[in-house]
Amino acid sequence: MRLVITLIAAIVICERGYHGPAPTPPPEPARVDFKTSIQPILEKKCSPCHFEGGVMHAKLPFDKPETAVMLGTRLFSRIKDEESRATIRKFLSENKSPDGE
C-alpha cells in the first residue's frame, strides 16, 4: 500500500512539473560608495575647479557627497558617458536629498 501511495505521489508531481524548491532571490546589489565610485568620476571631469585648491571648491566642493546629492542630475552638465551617469543615478537614488530631489 505504501508503494502505491509513493508511486501515485511521484506521478502527480511529475505531471504538475515539479521543479524543485523555489529559487532564492538574488542578493541585494551593493550600495554605491561616494569615495570609490562617485568621487573619481567627478575628479576626472571637474578638477581642478571643484576640488581642494580650485576656484569653485569653497562654493561647490565635489569631494563631499552632500554636494553631489544637492546638485543631483545637474552634475551631468559635464558628465556625458552613460555608464558614469548610471552610477551617479544609483548613488542619488540611494541618497535622497532632504527636499526629495
Short description:
The chain contains four helices and no strands. 10% of the residues are buried. It is 47% helix and 0% strand.
Your description of this structure?
- This protein is mainly α.
- It has a domain at 34-94.
- The chain has 4 helices and no strands.
- It is rod-shaped, with a radius of gyration of 26 Å.
Question: Could you give the distance between the termini?
Answer: 68 Å
Order of helices and strands: HHHH
The counted number of beta strands is 0
**Percentage of residues assigned to helices:** 40-55%
Calculate Rg over CA atoms: 26 Å
Mean pLDDT: 85
Gross morphology: rod-shaped
What structural category characterises the helix and strand content? mainly alpha
Biggest sheet record: none
Measured by DSSP, the beta-strand proportion falls in: under 5%
